Amino acid sequence: MAPRLQLEKAAWRWVETVKPEEIRQEHVELAYRVNLPACKRGTCRRNCKGNPNCLVGIGEQAWLGDIDENAFHNIDDPNSERRDKNTFVGLTNLGATCYVNTFLQVWFHNLELRRSLYQCHNSRTSPSLSEYEPQSICEHLQYLFALLQNSNRKYIDPSGLVKALGLDTGQQQDAQEFSKLFLSLLEDTLSKQKNPNLQNVIQRQFCGQFSYVTVCNECGRSSALPSRFYELELNIQGNKNLTECVTEFLKEEKLDEDNRYFCESCQTKQSATRRIRLHSIPPTLNLQLMRFVFDRQTGHKKKLNTFISFPEQLDMGPFLEGKQDQRCVYELSAVLIHRGISAYSGHYIAHVKDARTGDWYKFNDEEIEKMEGKKLQLGTEEDIAETVKSQTRKPKCSKGYHCSRNAYMLVYKVQEEENTDPSWTNVEVPAFLQRLVDQDNHKFEEWCNEMADMRKQSVDKGKAKHEEVKELYELLPARDGEPYEFIPLDWLKKWLEDSTATKEIDNALFLCSHGKLHPDKVADSKRVSLQAAQLLYERYSGGPRMDGASLCRECVGQRCRVLRLKNQLNEDYKEVTNLVKRTLSGEGYWVGKASLRSWRQLALEQLEEDEHETKHSNGQTNGLGNGDEMKTFNEDIVCCHGSLSILETERKLVSSEVWCKLREYFFKAPEFTQNQESCQQCLTLEQEEKDNEAVSKMMAMDQKNQLLNLFNEKNRPTLNKWPQGTDVLYIVPLFFVDEWRKFIRRPTKSSPVSNVGNTLLLCPHGGFMFTYDSLINGDGQHYNGHVALLWPSEWEVISRLFIVDQPISIHCFKETTLSGPTTQYTTQPDICWECRESFLFQQQRDLREYTQATIYIRKVIEDQRMIKEAVPELNASSSEAEEEKEEIPKVDGEKDPDFSQVSPFTHCSYTSAAAAPVTNMIKLGGIRRSTRHRKLRGEKALIVSANQTLKELKIQIMHAFSVAPFDQNLSIDGKSLTDDSATLGSLGVIPESIVCLKADEPIADYAAMDDVYQVRMPEEGFKGTGLLGH
């Protein structure tokens, strides 16, 4: 079928030969495309929107033919969350609790620990109490183990235990610290049990003994300090395998020089040797591989990604001293893994051996995978966010050994003799816990049944819809000569899509102003049989219905008239173009040149507006353009008073023949004959404006001649060296001088200045705020940018030319005393000391207490010189040059402590448009310069606050310059900034400060920099959690 535009054109081709008054029913049906042939399935790849009879590709493909039941719902099979037979149960990751999940799985597989934990009872676990709910940490752990053992779920939620512990689920913590604290908490809980067999379960399972043996080199005296351990912390740096790690742990250490040992026999400090002597090893041996170490250079933890080899069978006999009857051969039972190169991020996984079958499993939160064949690579997991370049080649391992760069804890269990008793591996869940498990399993089964019912309902509904669609789709096509109705295409698509509940049929947007089907809406609707329409309205309701009588003859007639005019427009345009070129003879008419240039476009827009007039109010607009564009022909020569514009260059005289042609399209256009006079009001205003400009030029010339030095900034008085020949100087706001100069330069574009506005420089009591010395050297350095000094002769002229609200002057008195000549300076009005002290106090406070202020970090090279100091940054704002060139004052009181405290005192108004203080700095009597900070190459701006620490600033600098905090040497005004815990306010870093950065050579260990990047706030650890008794 032809494209939509071709169908649109073909539907109205008849207008070329038919006038509006000659329209018949056949023309109306052509406009509404009633008789277009319907498309057949297979001939159209997509629906023909321009053909109301095309019912292909509207969504029917999904319903015709056989349909799989799963297509009728989006509900997953609830049995996918059911635990498979002979599998283990996973644990949900609550955000960042993977480190907790790994240890819980390891402890659950410790059968002796699980069996002992089940034996813990309290008064609430009595069989007669059926409403038992776990409350303490130990009770939650019991319930969690019972669920892991007998739950029907594929994975369970550990929220109860995590909440009881008070852990932050969104923050990853130190896994090794969690292990120590949790076992300590469990030991303390079990020690309070009445059953003596439970009181020392943790000690029996995890506790071993060693002693620190020190031997004096002088007298040979040996002293031993016994100690218990629950895990051995093994250094891995510089070691390749587990045996080397244990050997280093037990090796002899020399105590000499400052680290000498006080010998009881010698009664003095002596050189000595010290080593650890292992006496007994627990049945469950926890070996902590110290992957996470403290880096003194960075002040943070970092991860050692060193490969360590470890055996499946470990003989601890060679390391044990005494008690030769102990079993010393251990078998690997668990490997705890940290994926990631940083100590502050990553993911925790556990590889655990099933005590019953000897099979290995990977526990990754909710996912559990059996490890066999090639997958049985203990301690091996792909790293997170690690590039190929940073990967170290894995060393080869012999049979019975495994190698890992991510394992951080190894759990070995003593090798037991063959035990055929099944009760040894069977751990029974107590009745009070099994009741809770049964309740949870019952809830799970109810949920599964509910999901299954929902799936069934969706399938039943889908099957019913399937039958409905197959029935109705066959009835949809309207046959020739039979009654029909129009249905919106979007509604039909949604009915066939069935992703949401089908709403009623709404045809309101398809009606024209006559209440019938608009011709433009035919492309968005489909013509269906009356029988199908009747069934759809019965089932889904809606309206108003659009049948064969809804074809609008009025809209078709209007469209016919407009289209005919459109066809005529091109011919008229050519004719008008030729007529305009001819010499004018006889009476003419004024036409705007802009209107004449664009009259064809304006006419076309007018015709389109007429074409859409019949649309309902919710239809489209004609889109004539933006508000700045001309909407009415000839409006460009109409003045604001509604008369002919005085701008003769903007209009052209055309013949009456041309005007008549144009009037056919713009019958409402304003008409001006050749003899029409221009607007008298506009002429009067034009003359007044010329007179005012002449007056302003004369005024500016007169003022410039009287104050020539002030205008040219020549022969200006200064306070640094009091000028000879006068004992008084006058002060005015620099803003007044700037506005005056602006008027002198462009008198016709700027308003004249009438008021000096000196009250702007005074306090509320009318007193001056600054002494002579402070204006030169002290706290008035910012204030100097707001005052200008005048000679007495200049002040006399200004007093005569402008309104002076309050004179301000500085007087110099020279006296001769016994000690020699002295000079004193006073101001008029006098200084208000009360307001000045308040101002100084507030100024210092503002420098100490600021938020969201800008400072600049400037990177220096080895010789301490600024990088290309003389060259401003290329991408600096070009407006700086414009600001200095045009001398446009800008409000910036917030960055000016002096002025911000003075300006609120009074409200001074100028007659010019801008009435605000400026921040352009000026040495009194010197050359004016811009105060905007000029950024240099190698310099960047940072937003900081006074209460921010230096450490936090260094982290910001790290992001901006890619220099690690420990490589940063910061200074301000030559003073080094070294105290990381000090605030910027206390270090003297104030707004607009320039901090110099000298960077040391970068480190090679980028993982350490990543660690620093991760640490924004001090580590809280497990502070405030149940692990520390809170």
TrEMBL record:
InterPro entries per record = DUSP-like_sf, Papain-like_cys_pep_sf, Pep_USP48, Pept_C19_DUSP, Peptidase_C19, Peptidase_C19_UCH, Ubiquitin-like_dom, Ubiquitin-like_domsf
Example GO BP: proteolysis
Catalytic reaction list: Thiol-dependent hydrolysis of ester, thioester, amide, peptide and isopeptide bonds formed by the C-terminal Gly of ubiquitin (a 76-residue protein attached to proteins as an intracellular targeting signal)
GO CC terms: cytosol; nucleus
Report domain DUSP positions. Answer: 457-552
Q: Name one Pfam family in it.
A: DUSP
**Highest taxon in the source lineage:** Eukaryota
This chain belongs to which protein, by name? Ubiquitin carboxyl-terminal hydrolase 48
- Describe the location of the USP domain by residue ranges: 89-415
- Renumbered to this chain, the signal peptide range is none
Molecular function terms from GO: cysteine-type deubiquitinase activity; cysteine-type endopeptidase activity
Where does the Ubiquitin-like domain lie? 944-995
Q: Which organism is it from?
A: Cyclopterus lumpus
Major place of residence? cytoplasm
Work out whether the entry's keyword set contains DNA-binding: no
